[in-house]
């Protein structure tokens, strides 16, 4: 089995990375950064997002696991104290795999036939540095509303505890193949009207955002911000691809939600 370890880069994470790497090599596993079967991130959820984006071109052949060196994370949910046990479990393969849905975003440009396709593990957000965004929002090919406001966030179920939660979105269990659309400060008055509630769309219900007013956009895909102009449309839907987590012990989603947001041992 081939593995790769990605560290957040701080001293503690680097030390854990070095120790784990040596242990796994001692178990005859191969360190391979090109085609790893298992990618281990050591740091926080942000580090995990980086690991995901580095290997998102080979998701069907890569499993991910996260060790947290700071506070408990949603993706980084193993503690360094579990390291020895974890190494033995990894060496023993095959391990159990759990799959979570992802978001596919396709950005089409007005100029030429340029399209960019992205996969997000948490969410995509669309904002502008120039006053408000103004979009026609289509769902499944039908016009739903015209959105005017600060921006929109389209999140995955596992991303629903991140930015989406701060926007008042619901927390969605990752066994549901869905995406969630949440508003950022929509303008609502006698002229402009939006639904106001987060929308949860199932698989195959594509959401298309068509800018009515030409703006330069900041489009974020997880932790990465892209600058766009001349945008014809932004298409969002549940991706065909999924992220695969290597699971060595159960840690149910709702327990992670409780431990992260309510209390540690209550
Ligand atoms: P960051 O500024 O460090 O991230 C903000 C926080 O979100 C960190 O505490 C991060 O955990 C946590 N986080 C990431 N994914 C999560 C998830 N799925 N569920 C719950 N918490 C999660 O930047 P970053 O580490 O590069 O992460 C990028 C993410 O930050 C974006 O995808 C977005 O979801 C989130 N964000 C949130 C807000 C907001 O809540 N208002 C604003 C902008 C961005 P770690 O400390 O373990 O990294
Ligand atoms: Mn972070």
Describe the fold and architecture.
- It is a single chain.
- The chain has 266 residues and is an alpha+beta fold.
- 18% of the residues lie in helices and 43% in strands.
- The strands form 2 sheets. Strands 6, 7, 8, 9, 10, 11, 12, 13, 14, 15 and 16 form an 11-stranded antiparallel sheet that branches. It has a 5-stranded parallel sheet with strand order 2-1-3-4-5, sandwiched between helices.
- Helix 1 (11-26) runs parallel beside helix 3 (83-91).
- The chain is elongated.
- Residues 44-46, 49, 70, 73-74, 122-123, 158-159, 161-163, 166, 222-223 line the site of NADP nicotinamide-adenine-dinucleotide phosphate (NAP).
Average pLDDT figure: 95
Low-pLDDT stretches:
none
Largest sheet: 11 strands, antiparallel
Topology order in helix (H) and strand (E) letters: EHEEHEEHEEEEEHEEEEEEH
Rg (C-alpha, Å): 20 Å
Derived from helix and strand composition plus strand pairing, the structural class reads: alpha+beta
Bound molecules: NADP nicotinamide-adenine-dinucleotide phosphate, manganese (II) ion
Specify the number of helices.
5
Share of helix, binned: 10-25%
Q: What coarse outline follows from CA principal-axis ratios? A: elongated
Number of strands: 16
How much β-strand is present in the residues?
35-45%
Terminal-residue CA separation: 39 Å
């Amino acid at each position: 089995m081939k593995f790769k370890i990605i560290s957040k880069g701080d001293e503690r994470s680097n030390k854990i990375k070095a120790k784990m790497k040596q242990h796994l090599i001692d178990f005859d596993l191969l360190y391979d950064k090109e085609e790893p079967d298992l990618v281990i991130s050591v740091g926080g959820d942000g580090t995990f997002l980086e690991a995901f984006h580095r290997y998102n071109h080979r998701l069907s052949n890569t499993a991910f696991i996260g060790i947290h060196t700071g506070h408990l994370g949603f993706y980084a949910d193993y503690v360094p104290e579990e390291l020895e046990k974890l190494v033995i479990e990894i060496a023993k393969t095959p391990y159990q795999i759990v799959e979570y849905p992802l978001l596919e975003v396709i950005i089409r440009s007005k100029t030429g036939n340029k399209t960019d396709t992205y996969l997000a593990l948490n969410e995509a957000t669309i904002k502008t540095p120039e006053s408000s965004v103004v979009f026609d929002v289509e769902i499944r090919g039908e016009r739903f509303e015209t959105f005017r406001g600060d921006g929109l966030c389209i999140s995955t179920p596992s991303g629903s505890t991140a930015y989406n939660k701060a926007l008042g979105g619901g927390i969605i269990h990752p066994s549901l193949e869905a995406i969630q659309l949440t508003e950022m400060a929509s303008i609502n008055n006698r002229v402009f009207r939006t639904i106001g509630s987060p929308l949860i769309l199932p698989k195959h219900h594509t959401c298309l955002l068509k800018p009515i007013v030409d703006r330069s956009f900041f489009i974020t895909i997880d932790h990465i911000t892209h600058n766009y102009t001349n945008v014809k449309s932004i298409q969002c839907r549940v991706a065909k691809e999924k992220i695969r987590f290597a699971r060595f012990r159960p840690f149910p989603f709702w327990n992670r939600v409780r431990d992260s947001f309510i209390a540690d041992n209550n």
